[in-house]
Known about the structure:
Chain A contains eight helices and five strands; from the N terminus they run ααααααββαβαββ. Chain A is α+β, with helices and mostly antiparallel strands. The longest helix of chain A is centred in the middle third of the chain and has 15 residues, at 69-83. Chain B folds into two domains: 14-46; 49-193, Nitrile hydratase alpha /Thiocyanate hydrolase gamma (Nitrile Hydratase, Chain A). Chain B is globular. β4 (206-212) of chain A pairs parallel with β3 of chain B.
Amino acid sequence: MNGPQDLGGQMGFGAVRPEGPSAPLFHAPWEARALALTLCSGALGRWTIDESRHARESLPPAIYYTASYYEIWTRALENLLLTHDLIDEGDLAAGTTTPAAAHPKRLTPDALRPALEAGAPSDRPVQTAPRFRPGDRVRARVMHPRGHTRLPRYVRGATGRIEADHGGHVFPDTNAHGRGEAPQRLYTVVFAGRDLWGADAEPGLQVSVDAWESYLDAV
Amino acid sequence: MPHDHPDHDNHLDPMDARVRALETILTQKGLVDPAAMDRIIEVYSEEVGPKNGAQVVAKAWDEPEFADWLARDATAAIESLGFSGRQGEHMQAVFNTDAVHNLVVCTLCSCYPWPVLGLPPTWYKSPAYRSRAVYEPRAVLAEFGVTLPAETQVRVWDSTAELRYLVIPERPDGSEGLSQADLAALVTRDSMIGAGLAQVPV
Lengths: 219, 202
């Protein structure tokens, strides 16, 4: 979706504010709790990482741009929990609810480190031959889906070069909406800065994105 | 409250109350164990962070065969040091040289290689960085105090899928003969994103 998350090339956000190595990891204790709530809730297995990204980008732009990152996570988590009927509006309004027994998939402290170390790989076998080979010229498709996609607007319509073929990976555009993993081949595609930004590009710039096969057309 | 934060001093922050309420609800419903939450915070505060990535870089600087492995199969090479998993399932190492400087961003969210760098800093997640890194990376680098020669090509990697990028900064002059532990101390978090350079030994 052309939502507030699609930031590449947008203007007006000001300077980047670097933080040194001594800066705190969390800028308030609630940020740490928000991170942990998000990971523990995700471990219940009711939604995918793609669906959680879509929940964040679906927040209204005025909220997305004024919220801190962990506030975005918290608001998106509330929406995911509501959508999947794990909580209801009454729970949120009351700030408390009726106690229940532990969920069978509730993450325990001992299971945490193994779960993190296992991760959730997104590579999947695909049977089809690659449509593109390294060195091929491709155009990123012009498309404006209302749902989740990982093709940023700033490359749509631009011509680039296939640099690498990473094999099959879960397709976020379907997976975010419960329509299956539908794996497709994933490529690294490199664009010259001038093909993205025209005369306003910094000289010599190259930018790559990782793009699923259906995002690309042969040139 | 199922979980107490006696050290918290910002009682006016509405997000504090909002997150506390959510933790209360999810704990009561048996969906979340506050002890597991504590453990997550402990892991990312104390155990998993940029010192992991610095170890990878130092080994790559010191051992050409490890650098080759890292270039061919970063996931396996990094896992051999014990770093793997969530948000680092598919790793790619990109090597800075005099000719090419690599910079990593996630314009669409905040994708970041957690097993080697830990959680991303605030600036990495900010709209300012995400919007500008792909459009004017040299201007962004200048805000980090990094000015590259005009002839160096800047290559920006937008992490739009589940590949996670680790920048291997150039080994600094004057670091010959240092141990891997001493080399690792020169490797900053920002240098492994491409927003900085490795430190020169003093």
